[in-house]
Amino acid sequence: MSEPVSPEGQGWVRVGAEAELPEGHQCAVDVQGISVLVVRFEGQFYALRNNCTHKDYPLLGGEVSLGRITCEKHGAKFELATGKPKTLPAVKPVKLYRTRLEDGEVYVGPL
Ligand code: FES
Predict the structure, then answer these.
(1) Which terminus of the chain is more exposed, N or C, with fewer CB under 10 A?
(2) pTM of the shown model
(3) Cβ atoms < 10 Å from Cβ of 16
(4) Using an 8 Å Cβ cutoff, are 99 and 4 in contact?
């Protein structure tokens, strides 16, 4: 039998053990040189480029509610599931990344 291929060997970046990423957890990981925000909301993991599309400001640390994260700079809200802006001043969506759960470990990778 062949060994299972680690997700990390396929371009995925390990975020951490699911058990260590509680509800509401936020962190940023580097995916191919890009800072990617990982958020756990209502049990699901979401990953978006850690960069507000309004004025190039990190989204990490923004308030999360109703499935949306708020940019702390000027208050734009982005939907975690789609990256779409839901309030001004942002009008462009944030790039999404994929998340994956394997053997209790959370990974992110390009969409
Ligand atoms: S930089 Fe995010 S709303 Fe302005």
Answers:
(1) N
(2) 0.92
(3) 14
(4) no
List Cβ<8 Å contacts ≥24 apart for 32-36: 32/110, 35/60, 36/97, 36/108
Q: pLDDT for 32-42, tens place per residue?
A: 999 999 999 99
- The minimum-distance atom of ligand 1 relative to the CA of 71 is 2
- CATH number, domain of 70, equals 2.102.10.10
Q: State whether the beta carbon of 100 lies less than 6 angstroms from ligand 1.
A: no
Domain for residue 102, yes or no? Answer: yes
Tell me whether residue 2 is in a domain: no
Residue in 63, 69, 73 to alter for ligand 1 test, most ligand atoms within 8 A of Cβ: 73
Say if 1 falls within a structural domain: no
Residue nearest to atom 4 of ligand 1 (CA): 74
- Does residue 58 sit within a domain? yes
